[in-house]
Design a protein that fits this description.
11 helices, 15% strand, alpha/beta, four-stranded mixed β-sheet, seven-stranded parallel β-sheet
Length: 372
């Protein structure tokens, strides 16, 4: 909306979003962030991002009424584009979970902000609001048959010093979110050990700690880091390393990859917008390519990056490996790949040249061909 200078949730905006989402689906992405409220991530404390709230709220004499028609329109569009899963935007601010996201409503006929940085996450007013909202919203999602396809977030990238606040937030919502999937990106395994997050998304540089735990649904992500030796999508990283994440995910039974930078066209803390064609590093904040894997082309038409295509190849490698499992044991498959790779497959080491990556895929394909 900012880059193309269109009104949020106008027909033109939806048309542009549809093209970007279709390109995501075509490249193997099957879950999209759904901004029920304006996402409180990558935003300066006290600052604001462009309002992208899908939920319409009306407040009359202190009573809340919710309209989910825009959410339904968004979900319908995602499904038409081939998206299967929906992650709801975070219910508390990033890096600490101490405040509410920006939430706007029509109050006695006037549109205004009712929650935000000024709102304590544990305040009675906000907790009461969330419980009322989530009770109605989850019932609505149930009617749509989406319970198994929706993920909720508490807060993004909490650190160990935020455990008590995160725990309080989880407790305040425990009853209303019981039975729904809860997923958050983090680097500290203590959140899982204390039962605070059922589906922790581990940063790849810390995933070894999480692999020791009996986590039913395993996820991984990278963002800003790690760099040397690890898979990532920086412009300075060989595409073989970007693709190798698929091999790593297969070996360790990782079911999901969380991508932060599909089309982040802001600078650090979202103080301003950037042109990704002219600045590849989010306003000299991240390493080049970290924040953007799809570019905003003319007339609202997205342009794929080679890095997006390469990661899709990694997902296709996983599919080929799953097919291979119909004929061989997983241990035998891993052993064969590691023979070609030349060492054990770990997250801190990747194939770093085209020849090795191609040899690995040729080996997988040949194993299948030998059986069929």
């Amino acid at each position: 909306a900012d880059y193309y200078d269109v009104k949020v949730w106008s027909k033109k905006h939806f048309d542009i979003c549809r093209r970007f989402i279709k390109m995501a689906a075509d490249n193997g992405i099957n879950m999209i962030l759904t901004p029920i409220f304006t996402p409180p991530i990558d935003t300066a404390i006290g600052g604001e991002r462009t309002t992208t709230q899908l939920v319409k709220i009306n407040v009359t004499d202190g009573k809340y009424e919710f309209d989910f028609s825009l959410v339904d329109k968004w979900i319908d569009m995602l499904r038409e584009c081939g998206i299967k899963y929906f992650e709801m935007s975070h219910l508390f601010t990033q890096w600490g979970a101490e405040h509410a996201p920006k939430i706007v409503a029509t109050v006695n006929g006037k549109r205004k902000k009712i929650f935000g940085w000024q709102t304590d996450a544990s305040s009675k007013e906000y907790v009461d609001f969330l419980n009322k909202f989530l009770k109605e919203f989850t019932a609505h999602l149930d009617k749509l048959g989406l319970r198994d396809y929706v993920y909720f977030h508490i807060s993004d990238e909490p650190s160990e010093k935020h455990i008590e606040q995160y725990k309080q937030n989880k407790k305040n919502l425990q009853k209303v979110l019981k039975g729904w999937k809860l997923l958050d990106a983090m680097s500290h395994v203590e959140f899982y050990k204390q039962g605070l997050c059922e589906i922790p998304v581990a940063v790849s540089s810390s995933i070894e700690d999480f692999l020791k735990e009996d986590i039913k649904e395993r996820w991984v992500y990278y963002c800003w880091e790690p760099d040397q030796g690890y898979s990532n999508r920086y412009l300075g990283v060989h595409l073989a390393r970007t693709r190798f994440m698929g091999i790593q995910m297969y070996k360790y039974g990782i079911e999901g990859f969380l991508q932060w930078g599909y089309n982040f066209y802001n600078n650090r803390f979202s103080y301003d917008n950037i042109n990704p064609f002219l600045n590849s590093n989010a306003g000299y904040w991240s390493l080049g390519g970290d924040a953007v894997t799809v570019y905003p082309g003319n007339c609202g038409r997205p342009i794929e990056s080679l890095r997006l295509i390469s990661f899709k190849q990694g997902l296709e490698d996983i599919r080929a490996l799953k097919l291979c499992e119909q004929y061989y044991s997983k241990d035998d498959i891993i052993r064969k790949i590691e023979d070609v790779f030349g060492e054990n497959i770990v997250f801190s080491k990747c194939a770093d040249d085209t020849a090795t990556m191609q040899k690995i895929r040729d080996t997988i394909d040949q194993m299948i061909i030998n059986k069929i």
